[in-house]
Every structure is written in structure tokens, then in C-alpha cells.
Amino acid sequence: MRIHCFAIALTASFLSFGQSIVGSWKTIDDESGRPRSIVEIYERNGDYFGKITKLFREPEEDPDPVCEECEDHRKGQKVIGMEIITKMKYNKNDQEYHKGEILDPENGNIYDCKLWIDEEGKLKVRGYLLFFYRTQTWLPHSGE
Questions:
Q1: Residue 16 Cα distances to 67, 104, 110, 125, angstroms
Q2: Average pLDDT rounded to a whole number, residues 74-103
Q3: Is residue 36 a part of any domain in this protein?
Q4: Which residues constitute the domain of residue 59?
Q5: Is 24 in contact with 40 (CB distance < 8 Å)?
Q6: From CA 141, how far away is CA 144, in angstroms rounded?
Q7: pLDDT digit string (tens) for 31-45?
Q8: pTM (2 d.p.)
Q9: How many structural domains is the chain composed of?
């Protein structure tokens, strides 16, 4: 029985070791707990990027908004299709992605960013502004 438990634990550790963030992730609103968007994360030239592919909107919300609050090249750009995660680099020593940025299209703020997958296979997304940070949990998304 001990060997069987050890084998299961070893298999689980191999499965979680080095999991890639590439794929679709469902973002969750911190306050309401409702899904807000689907973000597709992909690799390009050794860096990792993420763009919004779908928004979950309330009836009173604009179904196809633009980023009015953005102050960079994304100002006035449609949020759907917008690249919000840029230039993340994978560090195999700590199994985290960092040195990139994330944009909050609701307020136009850009934050330093760190990403990692937790032991449950959820994506942890941490945005930093100076010494302050906030961490969100994004869920794997395989379609509707």
C-alpha cells in the first residue's frame, strides 16, 4: 500500500512539474466571483503573451467595448482581441513566468506581472505596482 501511495504522489508531482500556461483561461471577477473573460495565452519567440478572446457581459454592459482608459497604443482598441499579457519569460528554476506586464483594460493600468500554476492546475496571476500586489486565480478553460 505504501508503494502504491508513493507512486500516486510521484505521478502527481511529475504532472504538476513544469506545466505550461499556454492555453485558454477563464478570468474570475474578484468581487462578484463571476466569470469576466477568456484569455488565450501563447508563446511567441520564447516569450509568453495573452489576449482576450471572449467577454462575459451583463445585459447593461457594452458587449464589444474599447479601452478608453488605456494610455498606450491600445487606447481606443477593442478589448476582445486585445493583448493584455506581454513579454512574460519562463524561469525553470522557480517554474514561474515573470518580467512581463499585464494590462487591466477596465482602468488602463499596466502592472508588472508574475504567473504560475498552482498544485490544483489553476493559473495564479499576480500584478505588482511598486510594493503592492494583487493575485487572481484563473481557471483552465476548454470551451463552453
A1: 36, 28, 29, 17
A2: 97
A3: yes
A4: 19-140
A5: yes
A6: 8
A7: 899 999 999 999 999
A8: 0.85
A9: 1
